[in-house]
Write a structure and sequence with these properties.
By secondary structure, the protein is α/β, with parallel strands linked by helices. Helices cover 55% and strands 8% of the residues. The protein contains eight helices and four strands, in the order αβαβααβααβαα. It has a four-stranded parallel beta sheet, sandwiched between helices.
């Protein structure tokens, strides 16, 4: 999980507050992205935009049947993160995302590679992602939290979200 040392390190590297500071947090599931985003938001006085998966029912469905829900879940997430991305830009206040839009394509690739997304769906996803990327602004900063898959799985099990019980070490290792 994100700690005071990581936040202090970011402060020590002199991140200058500008109106449109746009920070993304990346890392595998359970890396501490939400914790770090929340703390950075407080320290830098920036709004935080959280991953939208808790707000809808796709996540549980996805982990119960990845093959059935992989494409629709990835399209949902891509759309929601793009909406957040644009909202941060249009607000003129900057912000922090607890998962970047750029990571979505990694999840889609892993699903395709594992046989959980058909080639036609994966190509459709990539085409949409590339079309949307024409309207994206690069982040001011992306902070990547590097966590071993074993530690990630331990944290996921500790937080005990029912919908995440199907996450395997193999899936986390692929991510």
């Amino acid at each position: 999980m994100a700690d005071k040392k990581e936040i202090q390190n970011i402060q020590n590297n002199n991140i200058k507050l500008i109106e449109d500071n746009f920070i993304g947090i990346s890392g595998i599931i359970g890396a501490g992205k939400t914790t770090l985003a929340t703390e950075l938001g407080k320290v830098l006085n920036l709004p935080v935009y959280y991953e939208p998966v808790a707000e809808e029912g796709y996540l549980g469905d996805f982990y119960r049947d990845m093959k059935r829900y992989s494409f629709s879940f990835q399209i949902y997430l891509l759309n929601e993160r793009f909406r957040q991305h644009q909202q941060i830009l249009w607000s003129g206040k900057g912000g922090i995302q607890d998962r970047t839009l750029y990571e979505d394509s990694i999840f889609a690739k892993v699903l395709f590679d594992q046989g959980n997304m058909e080639e036609r769906e994966y190509k459709t996803y990539l085409n949409l992602f590339h079309n949307m990327s024409n309207f994206m602004k690069k982040n001011t900063l992306i902070v990547h939290l590097d966590v071993k898959p074993e530690e990630s799985l331990r944290r996921i099990q500790m937080r005990a979200r029912g919908c995440e019980t199907g996450i395997t070490l193999e899936y986390l290792t692929c991510l």
